[in-house]
Amino acid sequence: MRILVAGVGNVFLGDDGFGVAVARKLAGTALPEGVHAADFGIRGVHLAYELTGGGYDAAILVDAASNGGRPGTLYVLEPEPGGPAEILDAHSMTPEAVLALAGTLGAGPPPVLVVGCEPEDISPGMELSATVAGAVATAADLVRDLIDELNEKQAVG
After folding, report:
1. 87: β partners
2. Would you call 90 helix, strand, or coil by DSSP?
3. Is the dihedral of CA 47, 48, 52, 58 positive or negative?
């Protein structure tokens, strides 16, 4: 099974760089065959094209996600690709906007999960807060668990 793990976010806005940190951590380790971890940063359009034309069976996007929880809280979300994307600023596309754009580019994206982390501080700066930095390893483990689950589902079904 081919799985894309895409770290997204702006490394110049503190905790918004969470997804990039997780992708970099995973890219520096041995991953199962067929799994590709990459830092997409703020390149939402590039990610949309990769999702539609990369031949992936599934994707896991990793990003900061404000969901009202305590900083450092991890979430697994299953966004639904929707109608046409309105791209006003390609550098600030949310995962939902990327999926909507991918849906307009052709056959649409593969099934996607989002691993999100509640940010503490997204003010200008290149460092993650201590709380969010502490969640990077846990998020990498969570992504590995999701990869295992996706591979098991494919083997069964």
Report:
1. none
2. helix
3. positive
Fold of the 3-156 domain: Rossmann fold (3.40.50)
The alpha helices in 105-135, defined as continuous H runs, are 130-133
H or E stretch covering 37? strand 35-41
Looking at the DSSP assignment, which residues form a beta bridge with residue 7? Answer: 39, 62
Fill in the amino acid letter for 69: G
pLDDT string in tens for the chain (157-residue length)? 999 999 999 999 999 999 999 999 999 999 999 999 999 998 778 888 888 888 999 999 999 999 899 999 999 998 765 544 333 333 455 656 656 655 555 556 688 899 999 999 999 999 999 999 999 999 999 999 999 999 999 888 6
Give exposure, 58-82, as e/b (b: 16+ Cβ within 10 Å). bbbbbbbbeeeeebbbbeeeebebe
